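Please, structure for the following, as tokens.
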Amino acid sequence: MSMAGVPGSTPGKDLSWVPMAAITYLAHTEGGTSIRALARKLGCHASTVSRQVRAFEALRDDHLVDEALRRLGPQVMSQPGAGSCLKETRMTMLPPPAETATTLTESRLNREALRVLRRLCEKGAVLAVASEMDKAVVVRETEAGQNRTAVVDRDIAEAMALKCWISCDTPGRVSRYAITSAGRSALGQLMARAENSAQGFAESQAAFLGQDAHLPEDDAAEGRRRLRHGIGESPLILLARRRDRDGSRFLAPDLVRAGERLREDFEMGHLGDTPRTDWTDILTGRTQPAPVVPPAASAQAAQARVLGALRDLGPGLADVALRCCCFLEGLETTEKKLGWSARSGKIVLRIALQRLKRHYADLGDSAGLMG
């Protein structure tokens, strides 16, 4: 039996990202289907279904999980007994009411989760969620204080909690979520999938500023290693730990924040998804970045902020800022790719970050991450 036969249903709704155990839970609680009937439909023992139901009932104490299940409930079942359509439910669910319609798809979830989970792997990073806000933020505790490193749509945060990629140990008016072992495993799979995509991480860096797209094998392997293993901290954070001969910090905390702000806008604007882009033409205004799909005002605003910042920096400074802050290249690699002398990159990077800090200070709140 297909859900298409239920009045008012919309076939083909992409909710394949929903865990099957969550659908089983909703089929029982929302659709009224007995555990034994669900077990027969799924071809498993009734105790297995019972454990899944109990597990998700316990998870409803989590605010994000509870919200996600409330959104999904009307889409799974419209009447008692509709749980007999369980196997078709993943691909054909009833649409939610108009006021709660969602655009969340598996591809969007995976793309956003890759960005957010990488941030949550950084030391001291948590996802902060306030009940009255429609966005969540990733914040990171540093020696200089609390630094916001990512903005997350509410439905993405709910989906990650529903899939147990994040969990909350400190619920409250502002709940704080940390990445789980399941989240780290999912991140590894998402990064491997991104590595195997048509463009690939190393090739996208080769296209930067018109460089030859065919990198030597050693450079391509280096790019793949960075993608797979470089999830703990960005090169900018690692550089900030270094000290000059006089003992002063290699990069001051406010300069690191400026660079991290550029990186966050770069990721929010999906600029890393644009393959073989001629960044020279983009920065001079001759071409535009690849459009965001699906269109999102926040992503388009983030793209505009990145382009505005880089054009303000100008040639040379924009090169090193984009490579080190956004493409996550180390200084030595950047110096080699740009043909600079050894140890000259740190001076140029510091100047670029100083200019970037001044750029954001001049813009004030208009350059905020919320778009």
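Residues 1-12, 78-102, 198-231 have pLDDT under 50 and may be disordered. The CA atoms of residues 91 and 115 lie 26 Å apart.
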